[in-house]
Amino acid sequence: MAFIDDIKARAKADKKTIILPESMDRRTFEAAAEILAEDIADLVIIGTEEEVAKNSEGLDVSKATIVNPFTNDKTDSYINEFYELRKAKGMTPEQAKETLLGDYMYYACMMVKMGDGDGIVSGACHSTANTLRPSLQIIKTKPGTKLVSAFFVMVVPDCVYGEEGTFVFGDCGLNQNPNPEELAAIAGSSAESFESLVGKKAQVAMLSHSSMGSAKHDDVTKVVEATKIAKEQYPQFAIDGELQADAAMVPSIGESKAPGSAVAGHANVLIFPDLDAGNIGYKLVQRLAKAEAYGPMCQGIAKPVNDLSRGCSYKDIVGVIAITAVQAQQG
To answer: Would the pLDDT of 327 be above 80?
Structure first.
C-alpha cells in the first residue's frame, strides 16, 4: 500500500478533529471537501460565514464544523484563558481579544488548548513563523523535547532507495543553522517520526559534503560532533555519519565510501546540516523527481501542529491533514 493510502486508512480507523484556520484560501476548502468525502477526519474550519461562502463556492464542505470567532459562544472563554496564559508577559484582556479575533491561528491554538480539536494544519498562505509562534506560546512543547523542528515526508516514485522511495528529510523548514546538539536532537526526532508514520526501522544519515573524513572543514566537524551526540542520546536508532547523499542512499557507494557502516547505502532518514541544504534538497527532489512532499511537519509540539509550504497544492494539504490525524492518535 502506498504511504499516503496507509496513512489515510489509519486516520479513518480512529477519526480525529483537525482545525483549519485558513478560510481565506480556496485550497483549504478543496482539501476539506476531499477529506470529508473520504471520511478521513472531522474538520473545523475557522471563518466568518462570508469567508466560507466565498472561498468554498461549488464545493461540498457541509460536514465540516464552521466556527465564527465573532459569534462562537466559546470565544469569551478562549479569550480569558489566553489572557491568563500570557498576562505574565504583559498581555491585557483587550490585547487577548484583539489577538484571537484578528488571527485565526491563535484562535485555533486556543481551541486545541481547551480540548476542542486534536491538531492544526496551516501555512498555505502564512509564513512558518506565523504558524509556529502561536503554537509555542499556547500549546507549548512536548515534555522532554529539546528542540522543535520540522521535517518532510518525501515519497519518490519509481525509487529503489530509502523505504521503497519513502524518506523523512529534516530539518527542511525551521532551524536555520543548528549546532551539533540541535542537529542531534533533529536526528532523534526525525527517526521517531519516521518509525511512527512509516512503520519501519529508521536508518538515519547525517548528511555532509564529506563522507567519513574525506574532507576537512568546520561544517564537517559540526556534523561529526552531531553524529557522536546522536548516537549517545538515541541508541535505539541506527544513526551514522558524516555521509554524502549518495553514500547514504546507494548501497554500492555506501560500501565504498563508508565500509562497515550499517546505515550507509540504506538511509531512509536524511538529516541536513542546515536549513539552506534542507530546503533546497527537498524542493529539488519534489520538482525534479516529481516526489510527493508532505510538510513541513512539526515535531516537538505538545499537540500536532503542521505547517504547509505556501506553494502547496490542495492535494498536499489533504496529505498533511491525514498525517496530522495519525499524529494526533499517538497522543
So the answer is: yes
The runs of H, that is alpha helices, within the chain are: 3-13, 26-38, 49-55, 75-86, 93-102, 104-113, 128-138, 180-198, 218-233, 245-249, 251-257, 275-288, 314-329
Listed residue (22, 5, 1, 23) closest to 294, CA to CA: 5
Answer yes or no: is 317 within a domain.
yes
Q: How many residues in the chain?
A: 331
For residue range 227-266, list pLDDT tens digits in order. Answer: 999 999 999 999 998 999 999 999 999 999 999 999 999 9
Number of domains in the chain: 2
Domain holding 189: CATH number?
3.40.50.10750
Give the residue-averaged pLDDT of 109-133: 88
* Residue 205: domain span: 149-288
Q: Are residues 85 and 193 in the same domain?
A: no
> What is residue 108's predicted lDDT score, i.e. its pLDDT?
95
Residues 218 and 246 in one domain: yes
Q: Tell me, what CATH number does 77's domain have? A: 3.40.50.10950
Residue 122 included in any domain: yes
Determine the pLDDT at residue 145: 81
Which single residue is written with the C-alpha cell 548501497? Answer: 251
The answer for residues whose C-beta is within 8 angstroms of residue 36's C-beta and 6 or more apart is 43, 60, 61, 63, 64
Angle of the 104-113 helix axis to the 75-86 helix axis, nearest 10: 90
CB-based contacts of 247, cutoff 8 Å, min separation 6: 211, 253, 254, 256, 257, 258, 264, 265
